[in-house]
Amino acid sequence: MAGPLTRAQFDAIVEALAVVLPGRSPADVVLKHHFRDHRALGSRDRALVADTVYSVLRRRRFLEAVTPSASPRELALASLVKLQGFGIGQLEPITRGSERNWLAELKAIDVESLPFEVRADLPDWVIARLRTHMADDEILLLARSLHQAAPLDLRVNTLKAPRQAVLDRLEADGTPAVPTRFSPIGVRLKEKIALNKHPMFLDGAVEVQDEGSQILGLLVEPRRSDMVVDFCAGAGGKTLQLGAAMGSHGRLYAYDVSDKRLANLAPRLRRSGLSNVHPQRISGENDTKVKRLRGKVDRVLVDAPCTGLGTLRRNPDLKSRQTESGLAELSAKQSAILEAAGGLVKAGGRLVYGTCSLLEEENEAIVERFLAAHPDFSLVPCAEVLARQGIEIPGCERYLRLLPHLHDTDGFFAAVMQRAA
User: How far is 315 from 410, CA to CA, in rounded Å?
Assistant: First the structure.
């Protein structure tokens, strides 16, 4: 930033941190409501506030270790100086007492001298689980990739435009973008824009969807005549991807337990131009809507509720909002959902289980338990499914294991299973 930070800007940062840090609700929701209540903040000031809040959330453990009392004020100052590149002189208008001396000492701290857990900036219970299958050096590489802001990826709605046409239009509009590394239907923007005002977004030619999420959808490989169920559809990113892959033919059910999430799907569905999607609210995995399709479905996708630790680049507050006790509850829910979803699959049909988690308890362990209990299902190597689509991803042979430090996507896991004919 060129000039000094004003007191009003700093006060706005501290005020926002004070409402976000308790973690009672997701940070993006709290920040959205906060900005709605503070309409006098200009767009540049809102961007500065949001950048600083997310910087603090990404490196909260580190900042709490190097600040005297970890107050919102201290965390803001430490982030601005140590993480965001502000000079101490730029903070002259807002520092007081001995803060300048403390900030000078902070600037000189060698981060590499701090304990591993602080450098990784992950909860102890997460580190302990990662250590069961990763060395500390790799955990640190993973953690550092999670400290970065995620890029903005778009999925091209191939019913409305080919990928090259989208790239050409973005280039013409002064928004440079590149094809995604693995997904044949993805575009990565080189800088973030107000996408919700762009004609291609308004027309449904593109949707925001991380490349990793797109690859999970590609594992379903639906055919035009299939009956498909997206078991945990949420706001429908992968539902829309599957509908487009089916050419708007066949029948695609989008199940979710949340009316609000399905309501968020409605405008996206209208923009997409799809006519084969049928959103349905269910009360749970044993809903009668689920039971009536038992043994009748060609493809079932389970993007299971999980800790979301693979999305820490976007949702860094999950590090403090998720807990070890919550993990056990999630694992039980994941097994129950997979059990119900597996019951829908017809003979010869496919079941895809996925999460955006980094933990084996939510991933391999769930799948292996399911396969042990259901000998009529067998694992299909993910590499085999992707190869048919011209995709090769290092380290994703048996299972899909996407990691931000290796693949530059959100962290995703997936397994493809087939029911015997």
Answer: 11
What's the per-residue H, E or C state across 226-252?
Answer: CEEEECCCCCCHHHHHHHHHCCCCCEE
CATH of domain 211-419: 3.40.50.150
Work out the percent of the chain whose per-residue pLDDT is above 90: 93
Around Cβ 131, how many Cβ atoms within 10 Å?
A: 11
The structural domains of the chain, with segments of one domain joined by +, span 7-114, 211-419
Closest alpha carbon to 189 in 203, 174, 204: 174
The whole-angstrom separation of Cα 209 and Cα 379 is: 27
Confidence of residue 193 (pLDDT cuts 50, 70, 90): confident
Mean pLDDT for all residues in the chain: 95
- Alpha carbons within 13 A on the beta-carbon side of 406: 14
The pLDDT > 70 percentage for the chain reads 99
To the query of whether residue 356 is one of the catalytic residues in this protein, the response is: yes
CA distance 76 to 233: 37
| Closest to 327 (Cα-Cα) out of 308, 301, 352, 340 | 308
Amino acid occupying residue 293: L
The answer on pLDDT for 1 being more than 50 is no
Neighbours of 104 (CB within 10 A): 11
CA–CA gap between residue 330 and residue 337 (Å, rounded): 10
| Bridge-based pairing state of the strands 186-189 and 152-156 | antiparallel
In single-letter form, the type of residue at position 374 comes to: H
Distance CA 230, CA 118 (A): 39
Give the active site residue among 232, 306, 356, 396.
Answer: 356
Start-to-end Cα distance in the chain? 63
In angstroms, rounded to a whole number, what is the distance separating the alpha carbons of residues 415 and 201? 31
Q: How many residues would you count in the chain?
A: 421
Answer whether residue 67 shows pLDDT above 50: yes
Q: What ranges in 219-323 are assigned the alpha helix state H?
A: 237-245, 259-272, 288-291, 318-321
Instruction: Please work out, in degrees rounded to the nearest 5, the angle formed at the alpha carbon of residue 213 by the alpha carbons of 215 and 170.
Output: 90
Q: Please give the Cα distance from 58 to 82 (Å, whole number).
A: 13
- 120-129 in b/e form (b: 16+ CB < 10 A) is bbbbeebbeb
pLDDT number for residue 2: 53
How far apart, in whole angstroms, are the C-alpha atoms of residue 195 and residue 203? 12
Radius of gyration from C-alpha coordinates of the chain: 23
